[in-house]
């Protein structure tokens, strides 16, 4: 495999963007990611994005992205109707063919214009599950309860995670929910879907995230300390919740092992955990030690979940800390589907200084 | 092309119909996938990864349907991806799947694309009212008709050219049992007398709305070498995108299409597409797009495409058959239509095209798809011998 690295990362996030449309949300983020990389538009060999038509409210949300990139003259470009972490995976495989050296990846959404819970329900089996109209939070609550009961825990552990997320997010400009809250304050709030409280459920943000990938010498030339992708793997599970053991994330464990997640120290892990309990399920699957590893130092999706970009941002958040030298090796995780149906694990590493 | 060679070693396709009420969406994709696996002498467990593609989710009302379809496509425990690049998606999906092999990441990839148009209404799905823009409810035909009129004006093509394509592709479809439209008594008069939809597009100048799915099994060189199944070696792949609108954009003969073909032909060593290919399956959803794409793809000089069509060069009996399967004009499961083009040329070079098999001389063929406002392109070249052999 070729050595491929993340060489720049930019992201935005606000609770509700009222001034800008999708194109205007993307443009500044792309500009920042490109400026960080120092590459010119003509030096980008491939562009790949992730978005969701239903969040956009019409067909072809990705066409907004083609406008934002300014694809004149025409570009090599593709799109996944998935979180942009999978767009990064597509670009990574393209670079692995040896035909190209660089790629620009982005994801975006302006979810404040729609009903996100209702849209996520449209992901479910249209014949057997959709007619029950379960929301994403309803389904997550089933998983949370299964996990707590299997591990003899109560909702206090969820509040601890939620409080830590909000504290961590105080330093994150893209976060839309942050603050120094106590566990007791959070536990005093009513449950929205037993055992989950509002603080255990992701908050959406409007925005975008972008990453530039580069191979070998190009990465070394444009980035002082590239975040090398040492492994990147993803797996999907059965859709029907009744066919899965919800107390475990088997696909995360398999993808993590295949990516080599555990074959070295883990300074930082950014997990695409959209509900408090998912931090526990994912940490189990990846064998993370919460003392040795800083988990979601950005606050994660509980502090701001820009749908279709949040998974890509997890990769970016790890890369950013490797660029800065505050971490040497980290794990990024992205997810899709109800109750962690599909999961990606990427292992990023910086070379020793010197 | 890439680190590893790749070949199509299995092809599966559903029958295309206006309403496949006999199957669910999962049943539809599974039907195509199973046929491709059987063709490749494989079972579900042989597959390393699954790549699925389709056009806008609003065509069926399911967001990110790959999640629900994971079980039906045997993807559980495996990597799965979902591609969406508008009408070109069937082609793009095959390309994304092939790159998983040419990169050396996987050995055997199943790729599937589908549309079940009967679940909804594509024209309405394309015409959702958006803020600050007038809802035209014009659908694709309303968008493309002005481009066709512009082509007629620029080239001086007579009005019957489109009708000739409409007749040619429907006659070809009579040899393809999986085609949606079978109109045995089709002739020029019937097309000319069909009602006007969007001037100059008459009813029989348009594609149908179909339910259907297409599946391919892509294998790495060593897998293909060991396989008893005939191979379509993938010689070249290219994709290009441009914005819907920009100053001086040529919407009739788009730069993105020309640039895509140029990169493709460069990879495959194609210098004269009319001679170097035995046939082409090209995305022609409205009849007039045959002469327009003949020019865009360099089969003739600009302004000359309609003359090739008129002379019968693109008929099954012509020197460069276009859409011998009947094409998009005879079956249009939108998200799958691009992959149907890619798969039909694979079948041609594998010698598996049945009653619409063309004569193999160069052993190479062109698959093409486009989408959006003539702005997204994906293409590939397949051959019955390894590239360079």
For the record, the count of structural domains of chain A works out to 2
Q: Which class of secondary structure composition applies to the elements of chain A?
A: alpha/beta
Helix segment count of chain B?
A: 13
Query: Major β-sheet of chain A, in short?
Result: 10 strands, mixed
The helix content of chain A, as a percent range, equals: 25-40%
Rough outline of chain B: globular
Tell me which oligomeric state these chains represent.
Answer: heterodimer
Query: Greatest contact pair?
Result: A-B, 61 and 61 residues
Strand order, main sheet of chain B: write it out: 3-2-4-7-1-8-11-10-9
What are the low-pLDDT stretches of chain B, counting only 5+ consecutive residues below 50?
Answer: none
Task: Please report the first level of CATH classification, the CATH class of the domain at 6-121 and 209-226 in chain B.
Answer: Alpha Beta
- Global morphology of chain A: globular
Features:
heterodimer, A: 354 residues, alpha/beta, Peroxisomal Thiolase, Chain A, domain 1, ten-stranded mixed sheet, two-stranded antiparallel sheet, 12 helices, globular, B: 389 residues, nine-stranded mixed sheet, 13 helices, 33% helix, 18% strand
Explain this structure to me?
The complex is a heterodimer of chains A (354) and B (389). Chain A is α/β, with parallel strands linked by helices and 354 residues long. Chain A has helices at 22-37, 53-56, 62-69, 84-96, 116-121, 136-150, 156-168, 183-187, 216-222, 250-259, 276-286, 310-324; strands at 4-11, 47-50, 77-80, 102-109, 191-193, 196-197, 207-215, 227-236, 268-270, 294-295, 329-336, 342-349. The longest helix of chain A is centred in the first third of the chain and has 16 residues, at 22-37. Chain A is globular, with a radius of gyration of 19 Å. The two termini of chain A are 25 Å apart. By secondary structure, chain B is an alpha/beta fold. Chain B has a domain at 6-121 and 209-226: Peroxisomal Thiolase, Chain A, domain 1, CATH 3.40.47. Chain B contains 13 helices and eleven strands. The mean pLDDT of chain B is 96. Chains A and B meet through helix 3, strand 3, helix 4, strand 8 and helix 10 of A and helix 2, strand 3, helix 3, strand 8 and helix 9 of B.
């Amino acid at each position: 495999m070729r050595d491929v690295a993340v060489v720049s990362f930019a992201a935005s996030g606000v609770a509700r963007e009222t001034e800008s449309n999708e194109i205007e949300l993307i443009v500044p983020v792309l500009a920042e990611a490109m400026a960080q990389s120092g590459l010119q538009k003509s030096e980008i060999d491939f562009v790949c994005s992730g978005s969701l038509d239903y969040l956009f409210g019409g067909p072809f949300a990705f066409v907004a992205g083609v406008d934002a990139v300014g694809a004149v003259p025409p570009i090599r470009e593709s799109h996944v109707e998935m979180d942009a972490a999978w767009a990064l995976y597509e670009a990574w495989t393209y670079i692995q063919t040896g035909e190209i050296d660089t790629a620009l990846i982005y994801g975006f959404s302006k979810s404040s214009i729609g009903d996100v819970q209702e849209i996520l329900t449209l992901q479910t089996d249209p014949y057997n599950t959709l007619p029950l109209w379960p929301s994403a939070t309803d389904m997550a609550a089933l998983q949370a309860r299964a996990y707590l009961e299997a591990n003899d825990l109560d909702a206090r552990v969820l509040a601890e995670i939620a409080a830590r997320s909000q504290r961590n997010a105080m330093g994150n400009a893209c976060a839309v929910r942050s603050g120094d809250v106590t566990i007791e304050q959070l536990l005093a709030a009513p449950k929205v879907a037993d055992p989950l409280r509002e603080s255990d459920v992701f908050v959406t943000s409007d925005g975008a995230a972008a990453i530039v990938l580069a191979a070998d010498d190009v990465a070394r030339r444009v980035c002082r300390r590239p975040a090398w992708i040492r492994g990147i793997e993803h797996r999907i599970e059965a859709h029907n919740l009744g066919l899965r053991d919800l107390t475990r994330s088997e696909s995360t464990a398999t993808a993590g092992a295949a990516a080599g997640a555990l074959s070295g120290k883990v300074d930082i892990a950014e997990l695409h955990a959209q509900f408090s309990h998912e931090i526990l399920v994912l940490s189990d699957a990846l064998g993370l030690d919460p003392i040795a590893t800083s988990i979601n130092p950005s606050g994660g999706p509980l502090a701001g979940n820009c749908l279709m970009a949040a998974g890509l941002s997890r990769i970016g958040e790890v890369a950013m800390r490797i660029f800065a030298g505050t971490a040497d090796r980290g794990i990024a995780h992205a997810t899709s589907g109800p109750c962690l149906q599909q999961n990606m694990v990427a292992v990023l590493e910086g070379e020793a200084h010197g | 092309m890439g680190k590893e060679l790749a070949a199509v070693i299995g092809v599966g396709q559903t029958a295309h119909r206006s309403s496949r009420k006999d199957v669910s969406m999962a049943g539809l994709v599974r039907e195509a996938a199973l046929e491709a696996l059987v063709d490749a002498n494989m079972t579900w467990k042989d597959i390393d990864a699954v790549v699925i593609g389709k056009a806008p989710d609003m065509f069926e009302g399911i967001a990110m349907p790959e999640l629900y379809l994971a079980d039906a496509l045997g993807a559980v425990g495996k990597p799965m991806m979902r591609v969406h690049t508008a009408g070109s998606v069937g082609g793009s999906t095959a390309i994304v799947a092939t790159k998983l092999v040419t990169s050396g990441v996987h050995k055997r990839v199943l790729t599937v694309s589908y549309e079940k148009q009967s679940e909804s209404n594509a024209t309405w799905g394309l015409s959702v009212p958006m803020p600050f823009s007038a809802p035209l409810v014009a659908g694709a035909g309303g968008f493309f008709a002005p481009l066709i009129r512009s082509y007629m004006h620029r080239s001086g093509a007579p009005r019957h050219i489109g009708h000739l394509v409409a007749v040619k592709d429907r006659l070809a479809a009579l040899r393809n049992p999986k085609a949606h439209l079978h109109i045995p008594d089709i002739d020029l008069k019937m097309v000319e007398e069909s009602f006007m939809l969007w001037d100059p597009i008459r009813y029989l100048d348009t594609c149908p709305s179909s339910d259907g799915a297409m599946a391919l099994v892509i294998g790495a060189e060593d897998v293909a070498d060991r396989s008893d199944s005939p191979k379509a070696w993938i010689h070249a792949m290219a994709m290009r995108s441009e914005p819907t609108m920009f100053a001086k954009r040529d919407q009739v003969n788009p730069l993105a299409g020309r640039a895509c073909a140029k990169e493709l032909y460069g990879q495959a060593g194609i210098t004269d597409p009319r001679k170097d290919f035995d046939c082409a399956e090209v995305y022609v959803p409205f009849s007039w797009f045959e002469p327009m794409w003949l020019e865009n793809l360099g089969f003739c000089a600009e302004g000359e495409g309609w003359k090739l069509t008129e002379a019968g060069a693109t008929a099954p009996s012509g020197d460069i058959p276009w859409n011998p399967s009947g094409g998009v004009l005879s079956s249009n499961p939108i998200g799958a239509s691009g992959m149907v083009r890619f798969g039909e040329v694979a079948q041609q070079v594998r010698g598996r095209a049945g009653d619409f098999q063309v004569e193999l001389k160069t052993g190479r063929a062109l698959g093409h798809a486009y989408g959006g406002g003539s702005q997204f392109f994906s293409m590939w070249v397949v051959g019955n011998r390894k590239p360079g052999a």
